[in-house]
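This is your field. Pick holes in the following sequence-structure pair:
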Amino acid sequence: MKTGVLGSHLAINDVSKRFGDVRVLEKLNLNIKSGEFIAIVGRSGCGKSTLLRLVAGLDEPTEGTLLLDKKEITGIDPDTRVLFQDARLLPWKKVLENVRIGVRDGNKERALEALRMVGLEDKANEWPGVLSGGQRQRVALARALAGNPRLLLLDEPLGALDALTRIDMQDLIEKLWQKQRFSAILVTHDVSEAVALADRVVLMKDGAIALDVAITLPRPRERDSGFAYFEKLILDRVMERDTSLEQEAQLKVSYSI
């Protein structure tokens, strides 16, 4: 599998989405650079997953445009892959055959290489039913990466995993992203996960962007005072805590950012 895959550039321009009289997104604008890792957080119902479906080409906006490498998204793009919370493996196919689904020409060696990347080459001939939850998500990740995507969309992919497995998967996703340099959008309720993985964290509220903050921490991320600063900054906004600009400035100094 080739490395150095060039990530896609995504421009979301004045996008609105309504279902009948229900407004889900309203005049949303977001720009994602090639190779950038974005995390989108917010309370349930704020429009995160709806936005991801629009980017994936699984739905159409009511108004506005989504441009992927300057071309309007009008359907599913072969260079875009999605990793869901449920691994969605086919139980009647062995692990290798599940991964081959993601390979454009079905090349077996490319599928095996993808399994090697996620540390599961030795599980190639196993049935999905015998794997742990974390292993199934690794297979799903291998399937997504086997197609050398330029844009990877992650919709709460680690939400059902235990804490230690979740951290392992976060580390794996970061390493693979650094190697392949695809663009990535992660939708998550976990602010800590967003800070650990993203270049920028975007907070959505009522179908609009309420906060867009760059995470200026070196990689790999250590859960130190700097990490705690960004985590608290974003959590306060998610929870709508009354934190003044002066308090935020004091917090920044105390955490030495």
